Amino acid sequence: MMKMKLPWILLLGFHRSASFTSPIPGRPTINPSVSRSPFHLPHTPTSTSTSTPTSTSTLVLHATPKKTPSESEKGRREEEKRRLERVKDVIIGQTSAKPDAKDLELDPVKTARDLLEAGTIAENRVYLETERGMAALRGMDMEEAFEAFNSVYALKPEVYLWQFGMVLYYRGEYERGMEILEGNAKIYEERFGERGSEERIWMDACRLKLKLRQNTGQSVTESVESERVSESRDSESDLPNEFRKVVQLTRELFTASVEENLTTEILTRAKLRQLAGAAPTTKSTATATTVRDPMGYKLSSWYFLGLHHDALGQLEQSKECMRNAQAIAATKGDEDIFHSFPALHMTVRGWMDTGNEVPVAPTQPKQEEEDTEEDIMMQSIMDSVMGLGLEDVAGEMIRKGLKNDKDESTMKLDLIAVLIDELIESLL
């Protein structure tokens, strides 16, 4: 028999009849007649044979004790065991996670019908009126949307329906819009533990419109003082930050305007302009290939820039941004209601006249867009500063410790240079 090297066995003596031949090549096994325990030192064979061996022997095994599984390994094994036990317990659409709960088929139409049949008359009306209002929004019918959503709130004042706040914004009912949107933001944040960013963006838009009314001498019934703004900010201070880039910048932009932080407003607008990129082609020539916007950054950036200009009363800038947003939305289809928002805004403002598109350049190749991102941001800063009045420029110069005793053009150029430096520093 071929001799095998067994470094983990110290042979002090053994029965001539013991065999170490392994059925698996390279893996030695001990004859069943010898104890398998690495801690057992047999002085006699474990075989029941009554024959007397010609010589006695002792086999000593030196082996490392089997490693005890770690707690994490035990946990993984137990979870895998539970997973295998559960694999046939739940079948989507057939079984329920709640005992004795009624399961609904994976058919949205039938599910809606079943819910209506199971609900009260009031619940059914809330559902149907909500659907009617959403359909009206898609169809650009603001009056019907208002009637439907207003009926919903009459039936269920605590309902979550932030789109009603948007409708109220376009109707000029800013005080009620703020109230509805603030309530919806709190509902969303308490329910999901995330920031109600869209609700608060529209709430700030209503607040800016109210401030605009105040500045023009119009009477308002809703206070827009800093105390209420601070309370609104404090209610979301413990929530995680907004992770969607465009929405986060939009929140910062509107907040800066409400708090009259001119520097933050200008720099944040520049960052949104960079995400929006070069102006797209017009609707008549735009295609999915000429407008590359897989993440939706361009569409949402142009749209929120347009909404911000609208809230500040800067209608020409808002019109240009909304038309750029609409040109991109036209390539995306109507599966997402957000894609209809630019057209909705333009319809309400009366900007949907044909043959009057803003002349814009075609989308540039990707490399050229990347090369001009800094230029886009710097141009945005220049446009923002050049559009400021003398009082705003002088006030910002004082806040930055700069001389404000120069002529208006020189102060604007100095302010532009300082803001560009701050932008570069914020991007490092």
UniProtKB/TrEMBL annotation:
Keyword terms of this UniProt record: Signal
Residue numbers spanned by region Disordered: 21-85
Signal sequence range: 1-19
Bias (Low complexity) ranges: 44-58
Top-level taxon in the UniProt lineage: Eukaryota
InterPro entries referenced in this protein's UniProt entry, alphabetically: TPR-like_helical_dom_sf
Biased composition annotated in UniProt, kind: Basic and acidic residues: 68-85
The protein, known as: Uncharacterized protein
